[in-house]
């Protein structure tokens, strides 16, 4: 699936394994971020992500969605849909946030 990381700090985290903005992340959460990006890249359609229950794929608002990295941390993304069935789209990874804050 086509995607981009739309945040310079997340690009640092993905390429270097660390970022000043995301110091609150544990090593396991950073590793999960790397794995989730690989899952997004490997997915053929968005519903492939919905089917993975461990990711807890959720619709937040309009075209903003999130997936779980841990119980406390979520990966937020925006999807620009390419079809009316909302199966194919371009994903922009926006942020990692603490859930419940």
Descriptive notes:
- This protein has one domain (3-98): RelE-like (YaeB-like fold), CATH 3.30.2310.
- It is built from three helices and five strands, in the order E-H-H-H-E-E-E-E.
- The chain has helices spanning 8-16, 27-42, 46-50; strands at 3-5, 58-61, 64-68, 73-81, 89-98.
- A five-stranded mixed sheet has the order 1-5-4-3-2.
- Strand 4 and strand 5 (89-98) form a beta hairpin.
- It is globular.
- It starts with a strand and ends with a strand.
Count up the helices.
3
Number of DSSP E strands: 5
| Rg for CA atoms | 13 Å
Mean pLDDT: 92
So what's the CATH class? Alpha Beta
Helix content: 25-40%
How much of the residues is beta strand, in percent? 25-35%
Secondary-structure element string: EHHHEEEE
Question: How do the strands and helices of this protein lay out in sequence?
Answer:
Blueprint: E1 3-5, H1 8-16, H2 27-42, H3 46-50, E2 58-61, E3 64-68, E4 73-81, E5 89-98
Which descriptors apply to this entry?
101 residues; alpha+beta; YaeB-like fold; five-stranded mixed sheet; 3 helices; 5 strands; 30% helix; globular
Brief digest:
This protein is 30% helix and 31% strand.
């Amino acid at each position: 699936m086509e995607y981009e990381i739309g945040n310079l700090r997340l690009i640092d985290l993905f390429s270097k394994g660390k970022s000043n903005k995301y110091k609150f992340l544990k090593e396991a959460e950073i590793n999960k971020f790397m794995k989730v990006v690989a899952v997004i890249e490997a997915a053929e359609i968005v519903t492939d992500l919905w089917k993975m229950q461990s990711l807890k794929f959720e619709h937040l608002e309009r075209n903003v969605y999130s997936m779980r990295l841990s119980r406390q941390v979520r990966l937020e993304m925006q999807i620009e849909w390419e079809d009316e069935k909302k199966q194919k789209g371009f994903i922009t990874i926006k942020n990692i946030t603490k859930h419940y804050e």
